[in-house]
Automatic annotation (TrEMBL):
Protein name: HD domain protein
Residues in HDOD domain copies: 17-213
Length: 292
């Protein structure tokens, strides 16, 4: 048994593995109940002033492009809706959790977050343009899609380096390289971690299968994350350990997306690129300021 397999098998017993913020878990649980009202959500979130502040700051940023100032939590909930509030809560929780991880010697946290949030933003752009009915958690899934790499870097840095070196020397993706070298991937590690954190199953499904969308219960959702990941990589937003060359038209996620849209709806990569760079700058103002 190699060290990556040992890490996978023992992940749940790691003592210094940070827990996901309780308030975020309570929000996601509450929003899975059909009977939940705006007042229920308000009563829960208002107990955490820091989270309220983050929601208001994000709601008032150009990232959401609202035409009126959001002045209160009630206003934010009514204007943004449950799904976007959940997106903000999960993204904010990820940032606060990342701060609790010990700093790896080799993994660049800032570059990782640039890539992660770039993927989330791109996923949101794709979903908005194509108007797929996926539940609206593309942003959160994109943000958290590579969390398994952080676990690998923190608890098995030697093998993390081996994967990066193999990817670089062989023009492979991080995912392809870890499959060849160890069999266990960052997606497998992410599945265990996100289940330990009790995050929503639809979110876990997209994260775990973003390299293999055909295996996902929601293939469209996983494909959006897959394509967003590739677009973010190709545009040089952050770094996720990918050194492979690819044609988008050959990618599984792209094929699933394009087979599920009308011929008249063309995907304009130039438009995606423009919106990506425009919105990544705004997202940095909202999310990255505390970390960079």
């Amino acid at each position: 048994m190699n060290n990556v397999e040992k890490l996978y098998n023992n992940l749940e017993s790691i003592e210094n593995l940070p827990a996901f913020p309780q308030i975020a878990l309570e929000v996601t649980y509450l929003l899975r109940k059909e009977s939940t009202s705006a007042k229920n959500l308000y009563d829960l979130i208002q107990k955490d002033p820091v989270l309220v502040s983050q929601i208001l700051k994000t709601a008032n940023s150009p990232f959401y492009g609202l035409h009126e100032k959001v002045s209160s939590l009630v206003h934010a909930i009514n204007l943004l809706g449950f799904v976007q509030i959940e997106n903000i809560v999960i993204a904010s929780a990820l940032l606060s959790t990342m701060k609790k991880f010990p700093v790896g010697r080799r993994f660049n946290t800032n570059q990782f977050l640039d890539h992660s949030f770039g993927c989330g933003i791109t996923a949101k752009i794709i979903s908005n343009i194509l108007n797929f009915n996926t539940g609206g958690l593309e942003f959160s899934a994109g943000v958290i899609h590579d969390i398994g790499k952080v676990i690998l870097d923190l608890y098995d840095q030697e093998d993390f380096d081996k994967i990066l070196n193999f990817a670089y020397k062989n023009n492979k993706s991080f995912y392809e390289s870890e499959k060849v070298l160890f069999g266990i991937t960052h997606c497998d590690l992410a599945k265990k971690l996100l289940k330990k954190w009790s995050l929503p199953e639809d979110l876990i499904d997209a994260v775990v299968n973003h390299h293999s969308p055909k295996k996902a219960k929601n293939q469209i959702m996983a494909s959006i994350i897959s394509v967003a990941d590739l677009l973010t990589y190709s545009e040089g937003i952050g770094f996720g350990g990918n050194y492979s060359k690819f044609l988008m038209e050959d990618q599984e996620g792209w094929k699933i997306i394009t087979s599920n849209i009308e011929v008249s709806k063309k995907i304009d990569l130039a438009l995606f690129t423009f919106k990506l760079f425009e919105q990544i700058d705004e997202a940095k103002k909202s999310y990255f300021k505390e970390l960079h």
